[in-house]
């Protein structure tokens, strides 16, 4: 595979409004062939769908409700997600999951929304893309309870241990490796050393979590090679191997052919 895949980028974010075309041009220069866009809630759908319609070969939409958008009215948000999933094909149900970083008030509702969307993923034979900030063990527990052989997906923005990675791999899921891998104290080197490329995909989470040397600035998909280079350095393997395997993994997961 001679191109990279960014499996998780919020390029519909307002940070990209002024230079969207230039950003895509930089992606082309860096051989970023596919960019998968996770939905957040009702506020992100229109812009995400617009970008997909403008660049359908490159920018590909998912549909889901982000756990940080699960509030008292989450049933209304879920209704919109279900309506969209019933109308057309999406790459995945995402971004879904749990979050205990910002607010613990709606944990029960987050779990309910997560489980409901998992069932939709099974119904439509779609992978899921999981957010699990400060809640990784709890989220793995939730997936273990419902994995019946019909679930696949990505634990996005992976930041856990080797042991947690092994649980995820046993479930048949991929680890989403992004900019945190390049951070001096990111803590991911043991995971990168221990885990085979067979179980990794690349991501940026743009506009967040830019890799070194851009840390603290806006992230964008053209920085994916920086993440791949870090993995290659830690694993002492050719950069081409990282690119090829992670791209194959992503295309297989999202059921795309080249």
UniProtKB/TrEMBL annotation:
The lineage of its organism: Bacteria, Pseudomonadati, Bacteroidota, Cytophagia, Cytophagales. This is TatD family deoxyribonuclease. A divalent metal cation 2 binds at residues 131, 156. One of its GO terms (molecular function) is DNA nuclease activity. Belongs to the metallo-dependent hydrolases superfamily. TatD-type hydrolase family. It comes from Chryseolinea soli. GO terms for cellular component: cytosol. Transmembrane segments: none annotated. A divalent metal cation 1 binds at residues 8, 10, 95, 205. Keywords: Hydrolase, Metal-binding. The keyword Metal-binding applies.
């Amino acid at each position: 595979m001679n191109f990279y895949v960014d499996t998780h980028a919020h390029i519909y974010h307002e940070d990209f409004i002024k230079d969207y075309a230039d950003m895509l041009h930089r992606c082309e220069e860096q051989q970023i062939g596919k960019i998968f866009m996770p939905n957040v809630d009702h506020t992100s759908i229109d812009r995400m769908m617009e970008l997909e319609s403008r660049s359908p070969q490159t920018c590909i939409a998912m549909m889901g409700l982000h756990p940080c958008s699960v509030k008292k009215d989450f049933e209304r948000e879920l209704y919109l997600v279900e309506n969209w999933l019933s109308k057309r094909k999406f790459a995945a149900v995402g971004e879904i999951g749990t979050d205990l970083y910002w607010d613990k008030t709606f944990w029960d509702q987050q779990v309910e929304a997560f489980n409901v969307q998992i069932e939709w993923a099974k119904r439509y034979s779609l992978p899921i893309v999981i957010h699990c900030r400060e809640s990784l063990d709890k989220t793995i527990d939730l997936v273990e309870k419902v994995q019946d052989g019909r679930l696949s997906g990505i634990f996005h923005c992976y930041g856990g241990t080797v042991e947690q990675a092994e649980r995820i791999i046993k479930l048949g899921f991929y680890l989403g490796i992004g900019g945190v891998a390049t951070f001096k104290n990111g803590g991911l080197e043991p995971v990168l050393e221990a885990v085979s490329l067979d179980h990794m995909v690349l991501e940026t989470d743009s506009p967040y979590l830019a890799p070194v040397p851009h840390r603290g600035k806006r992230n964008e998909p053209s920085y994916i090679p920086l993440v791949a280079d870090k993995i290659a350095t830690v694993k002492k393997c050719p950069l081409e191997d990282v690119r090829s395997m992670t791209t194959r993994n992503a295309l297989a997961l999202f059921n795309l052919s080249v």
